[in-house]
Structures are given as C-alpha cells and as structure tokens.
Amino acid sequence: MTELNNKKVYVETYGCQMNVADSEVVRSILKSEGCVFCLSANEADFVLINTCAIRDNAEQKIHRRLRELRVVQQRQSTRNAKGYDIQKTYIGVLGCMAERLKQQLMRDEENVSFLVGPDSYRKLPDIMRRVAQGDRVSETVLSPSETYSDISPVRFDGNGISAFISIMRGCQNYCAYCVVPYTRGLERSRDARSIINEARALFGEGYKEVTLLGQNVNSYKAGDMSFAQLIANVAEISPELRVRFATSHPKDLSDELLATMAEYPNICRCIHLPLQSGSNRMLKLMNRRYTAEWYMDRIEAVRRYLPDCSITTDVIAGFCGESEDDHRATLDIFRRVQYDYAYMFKFSMRPDTYAAKHLKDDVPDEVKKRRLEEIIMLQGEIALRNNQRDVGKRFRVLVEGTSHRSKDQFFGRNSQNKVIVFDRGDAIPGSYANVEVTGCTAATLMGRLVE
Ligand code: SAH
Ligand code: SF4
Ligand code: F3S
Known about the structure:
Distance between the termini: 62 Å
Number of strands: 21
Largest sheet: 6 strands, parallel
Shape: globular
Radius of gyration: 23 Å
Number of helices: 14
Helix content: 25-40%
Low-confidence stretches: none
Mean pLDDT: 96
Bound molecules: S-adenosyl-L-homocysteine, iron/sulfur cluster, FE3-S4 cluster
C-alpha cells in the first residue's frame, strides 16, 4: 500500500469555529502518519477542503473553489504529458457539505477523489491510501459517540496565544431552518478530564486563551458534570488563562452558568446568544423553543450577574412567512438589547430541513434583502454608540499581534471580545497590557497603553 509518510497535505477550512477545530484534529491524525503540511494547493499531494453547508452561498463558494482546483490538476497532467514526473494532486471534501451531499457531490464534481463526513476523520489515512491507488471513496456515516477526545489537535494556523477546544459535537435541536443536525448528527459531550487536560497543556505551552466550542455548549453534560462546572474547572487552571465559549442557546442559558461566570474574572465577559427572530410567531415556526419574553428575561439575567458583559447575536431575515410586523419585532429586540455585535443573515432554504419539507420560502428576495439591510443599519448605529461608551475606560487586553493598519500598532481583545488597536510601545504579543480607549469606529476601539 502507498505510504503517507512525507506526503504533502494542504488543508483549507470554511464555516464555523467547529470546522477550524476539526481541521486541527484532521492534521493531528495525518501528522501521526508522517504527512507534512504545506501552505498552498499548488505544492500538495492531497488537498483537503473542510466545508460548510449552512447557507446556499457557503456551498456555492466551495463549488467555485473546486473549479479553481481543477486548473491546478490540469496543469499537473499537462506537465506530466511533457515528460515531467509530477505527482497527481488528489482532492478530498470533508465536513458538512460532504455529509449533506454524499455521493451526489462526487457525481457532480469529477475531480473530487474522496468525501469524508465530520465523524469519520479517523478513517482518513486508510481512505487516502486507497485514493492514491486509484479508488474514489466516500465515508459519511455519522456516529452517536465520536468526540475525538483522545486526539491532540495540531494548531497549525494558530497564533500560539488563543486556541479552540471542541467540547461537544452534533446538535439535536432541529431548528426548522438549520442543516446542522443533519450534517453533524446527534449531540454528544466529550469527557471532562480530556478537555481540562487539553486546556492545561495549552496553558503550559504559553497559550493565554481557550474557547470551548459546541453548537449548544450550555447543554454540555458528561456524567455529573454540567457546563457551568466544566468551565469553572477550566478557569481554575490559572487566573492568567482566559476562558471563552460559544455558542449558547437562549433556552438553556442558566443562572448557574451566569453565577459561575461572575465568580471567575478570567471567564470572559462576553455571551453570544443567537436571537434568530424577535417575533414569537417566527420563533415558534423556527422551533427555537423560547419566546421573546423568555429571551429578554435571559438578557436581564446577564445584565444582573455581569453588568460589564458584552452580548452578541445571530439573526435571520426573511424566514418563511415573515411579515413586516415580525420583522419590526426583531428590530425592536435589537433596540432593547443593544447588542455589541451581530451576525446577520438572509434566510436560505436548506434541503431536508423541517422548513424545506413543510414551509414555503415565500418572502421575496428583495424583501429579505431590504429587511437585512435595515437590521444591519440599525446594528451599525447601536455598535457605534456602544463603542463610544467605552471611550475613556481602561481594559486589560490580551495582545495578539501587529495591526493590519500599521506595523507600529498592535491589536488585542478585551474580556468583552472587542478588538482594540494601540501604539505598540513595550507591549508583547501573548501577554496582557492595560489600554485606555481614546476613540472608536463601529467595529474597533482605538487606545493607548497605560500603567
Ligand atoms: N448553534 C448555533 C448556530 C449555528 S449556525 C445556534 O443555535 O445559535 C450559525 C447561524 O447561522 C445561526 O445562528 C443562524 O443565525 C444562521 N443560520 C442557520 N441556518 C440558516 C439558514 N438556513 N439561513 C440563514 N441563516 C442560517
Ligand atoms: Fe442549528 Fe438550532 Fe442546532 Fe443551532 S441549535 S445548530 S441553529 S439546529
Ligand atoms: Fe457550517 Fe457545519 Fe459549522 S454547516 S456552520 S461548518 S457545523
């Protein structure tokens, strides 16, 4: 059988943070086979594209990328025809799109040699060996138990300062619009010991921040360990280690978690709480299992326990049957909550979901667009006002590196996850600095180093 030793692998990652973490698991699995990682598809023996299926445009992007990669392969075969002995590049599609489309993707994309769903990465070495001998392979069985808990991720693209730790996989909330339960399978939590050990090892290597990841982290449960207990254990590792998490579902945001956050200053003051819609009628149709009143009650609880906490959200404009009144209800919640940041999307119908089977995608595209624009405009004003309120305040910032704007400036983030840019002075990436905010835009704070 072909050996993978010294084979050059290029991994490209799309989609959410879970995919970033999965690509690190994939690298770990391939590293133990002796693979080496390269920085571009042109040099690679194997190109692995870790994909996202959340909206149609996410999938279109992958189809475009696969067309580009066809050119890389054609160039190689032309050179081989001229007598050069150049190794063929094999292309594999991993992740959510592989899982959703299965064999159909290989039928539509002839240059793809293998498909591997999110729960089958342990099989990658065998699959790649078969592919190198001329097979085309598809492996997309989902597992009720796989958590890759024994695999130490290889953080190849990382900054050595901040790392993701995947603590659970899958989702079974079945929001009506969402493809994730079909691409990621049933919810399962990774054992707590392996998570805490991974965080401790990262801190030992010099990392200063970990983000605990799951589609719905606050339903984490491993034995008797709740998410609040888990995060407390991770926060105990050191007061110098910052702990973040994403994403929490409003229906499960417990007072226990908020009280734990209040107890540990190193659990960051930032909660991502996806709203999706401010209308009870829409929330019900979306199967979100909370009302706008419940959501506002949770926001008030956050403000009570953590007065300096930032709150961010996700929202969908133009879900099935959304009326102007429903849309106004969303704008109303945005005004009341005053989010620090929002990820805002136009509804995209996904095959196989409840919405695709039972509801109609009946909001015209130009109406979706206009509603989305209105949300974006409003949120822009809110974010700017929120940032203006930070001017004059001092924050402890974890310095991450050189700012894109100027090599004389660093950027870092405060506990609230806001980016702050400042003249570098004697600050050091990977350590903390105190920064006073002197100005802002809607997206960024500007500041200066203080004692
Ligand atoms: N588990 C997280 C979200 C995961 S997907 C949660 O429940 O909050 C990230 C975001 O993509 C969602 O919060 C939602 O706002 C958006 N999204 C998911 N499916 C979508 C669809 N079909 N069309 C548009 N946006 C969608
Ligand atoms: Fe999708 Fe809902 Fe699960 Fe989030 S909670 S991943 S939106 S089904
Ligand atoms: Fe996309 Fe899959 Fe994440 S669909 S958002 S990569 S879980």
